[in-house]
């Protein structure tokens, strides 16, 4: 076995308690340890990504117990891609948190940050549904702490809503797992694919219930209608670096739908055929509409960005709902794009809000470096809205091109194009207020005897993370050809159920 497969889980799991118990009173030491650990995670993720390009599915057996009786981690192109995406995003966010001083507003930021990475990486690598639940809980517990980092009444209220909805999701998750185990005797994803294929349709009522429950749980994580309502308040009130890291959290839900509902509940399984897919597409259409209308109607900057994330998740789920290799390729391209686009917006929004001392979309005295911030904001907005020349334009084109069903094509094209238009208008309105109308607003007159507060210019280290995320969007567009080739092979491997089952169980679907 290749022990590097478990490293993305073990490394942050070991580093987090060391930072939390030994370094919590020394911010410099905690920063050094956290940055070093995240750099190592990024290097490991690159190695795993290169290893996965061979097309082989690697299985790590904890305790050398064979599946399905033992716990297994599975590395293929998809899981390697998601771990790599997590590590790069984490490095960008961590640098921003340190440069802006967000990490110094509480003692446990870096420990919670590493626990969060452990949970996310574990969710992407696990080979059974029960441990997917375990890693969901790890990342959610850490995200609770990060969500309320530095306190505040509004942040605590949003955090409470976040906790309640996710506790409800976790309860449903346990019900679904219990039902699945009672009917199949296993929770290993590969073994589920075998067992579910043996169940006659007429005896599959409980399995269909479990399938729908799991879809609801994953929809909660992915902020999909009708359980998307927690995301705008949570992301808008979270510390900006945390909201940027949360850009990968919704992708965990999308990944779980892709992995579990393609392999275990795929179209080849008669017992569950159509249970999830028939509901997923209309829910995605409504999610796009909610996100676009939210962007258009927002009166504050951070909720506007949060609603744009909701809309992007709807676009992503439209592609995923087709459950075909071509649509999955488009979904993966858009997934990578939307993660960095959302992160860039939150980081740029943080720099703006900290200099305006408010996120209200109203005319205020112009900020320092107004032209620079305007350029960064509109570049990130173009990326999120899906306008050329950045990768969002190509991503939406890929998604539209793969929706060929006559009953879906009109709805998909209308939702995505209209949603993009509303998003463009919303961001244009916000940008005009932030950067153009503000130039005509006079600065307040100094009060006699008091020094006039001077807004500090952004230092290079504060600007570098957001600019790095924007640079990745440019590279993703420039390298769209080779990237889509890799993602196409990733989608083909994901839809190769027999290959996955053979690698994990050492047998074929009939065996």
Q: Strand-and-helix sequence, N→C?
A: HHEEHHHHHHHHHHHHHHHHHH
Q: Percent of residues in beta strands? A: under 5%
The end-to-end distance, rounded to whole angstroms, is 24 Å
User: What is the helix fraction of residues, given as a range?
Assistant: over 70%
Sequence stretches where pLDDT stays below 50 over 5 or more residues = none
Radius of gyration: 23 Å
Q: Let me know the average pLDDT.
A: 86
Question: Using DSSP, what is the number of strands?
Answer: 2
Tell me what you see in this structure.
- The chain is an all-alpha fold.
- The protein has helices at about 5-20, 25-50, 75-100, 110-125, 130-145, 155-185, 190-195, 205-220, 230-235, 240-245, 250-265, 275-295, 300-320, 325-355, 370-385, 390-400, 405-435, 460-480, 480-495, 495-505; strands at about 60, 70-75.
- Helix 12 (about 275-295) runs antiparallel to helix 13 (about 300-320), helix 12 (about 275-295) runs parallel beside helix 17 and helix 13 (about 300-320) packs parallel to helix 16.
- The protein is globular, with a radius of gyration of 23 Å.
- The two termini are about 25 Å apart.
List the helices and strands and how they pair.
Blueprint: H1 7-22, H2 27-52, E1 58-61, E2 72-75, H3 77-100, H4 109-125, H5 129-147, H6 153-184, H7 189-197, H8 205-221, H9 230-237, H10 240-245, H11 249-263, H12 277-297, H13 301-320, H14 325-356, H15 370-385, H16 391-402, H17 406-436, H18 460-478, H19 480-494, H20 497-505
Antiparallel strand pairs: 1-2
């Amino acid at each position: 076995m290749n022990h590097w497969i478990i490293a993305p889980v073990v490394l942050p799991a070991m580093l987090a308690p060391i930072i939390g118990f030994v370094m919590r009173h020394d911010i410099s030491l905690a920063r050094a340890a956290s940055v070093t650990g995240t750099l190592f995670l990024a290097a490991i993720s690159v190695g795993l990504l290169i290893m996965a390009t061979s097309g082989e599915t690697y299985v790590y057996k904890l305790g050398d117990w064979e599946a399905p009786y033992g716990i297994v981690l599975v590395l293929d192109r998809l899981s390697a891609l998601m771990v790599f995406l997590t590590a790069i995003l984490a490095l960008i966010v961590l640098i921003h948190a340190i440069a802006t001083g967000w990490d110094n507003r509480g003692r446990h930021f870096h420990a919670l940050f590493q626990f969060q990475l452990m949970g996310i990486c574990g969710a992407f690598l696990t080979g059974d549904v029960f441990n997917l639940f375990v890693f969901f809980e790890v990342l959610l517990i850490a995200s609770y702490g990060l969500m309320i980092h530095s306190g505040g009444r509004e942040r605590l209220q949003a955090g409470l809503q976040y906790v309640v909805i996710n506790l409800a999701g976790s309860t449903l998750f346990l019900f679904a797992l219990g039902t699945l185990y009672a009917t199949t005797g296993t929770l290993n994803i590969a073994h589920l694919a075998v067992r579910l294929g043996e169940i006659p349709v007429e005896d599959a009522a409980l399995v269909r219930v479990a399938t729908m429950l799991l879809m609801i749980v994953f929809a909660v994580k992915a902020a999909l209608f009708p359980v998307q309502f927690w995301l705008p308040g949570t992301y808008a009130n979270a510390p900006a670096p945390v909201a940027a890291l949360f850009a990968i959290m919704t992708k965990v839900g999308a990944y779980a739908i892709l992995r579990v509902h393609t392999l275990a509940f795929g179209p080849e399984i008669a017992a569950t055929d159509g249970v999830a897919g028939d509901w997923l597409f209309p829910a995605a259409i409504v999610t796009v509409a909610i996100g676009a209308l939210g962007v258009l109607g927002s009166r504050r900057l951070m909720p506007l960005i949060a609603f744009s994330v909701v809309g992007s998740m709807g676009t992503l789920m439209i592609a995923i709902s087709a459950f075909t290799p071509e649509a999955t390729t488009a979904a993966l391209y858009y997934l990578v794009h939307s993660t960095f686009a959302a992160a860039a917006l939150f980081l740029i929004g943080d720099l703006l809000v900290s200099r305006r001392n408010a996120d209200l979309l109203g005319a205020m005295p112009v900020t320092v470096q107004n032209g620079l911030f305007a350029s960064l904001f509109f570049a990130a907005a173009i990326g999120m809205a899906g306008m050329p020349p950045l990768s969002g334009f190509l991503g939406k084109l890929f998604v539209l091109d793969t929706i060929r069903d006559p009953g879906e094509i009109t709805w998909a094209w209308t939702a995505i194009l209209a949603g993009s238009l509303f998003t463009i208008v919303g961001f244009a309105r916000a940008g005009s207020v932030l950067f153009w109308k503000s130039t005509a607003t006079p600065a307040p007159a100094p009060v006699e005897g008091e020094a006039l507060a001077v807004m500090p210019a952004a230092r290079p280290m504060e600007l570098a993370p957001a600019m790095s995320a924007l640079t990745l969007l440019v590279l993703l567009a420039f390298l769209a050809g080779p990237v889509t080739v890799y993602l196409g092979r990733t989608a083909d491997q994901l839809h190769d159920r027999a290959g996955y089952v053979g690698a994990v169980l050492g047998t074929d679907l009939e065996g």
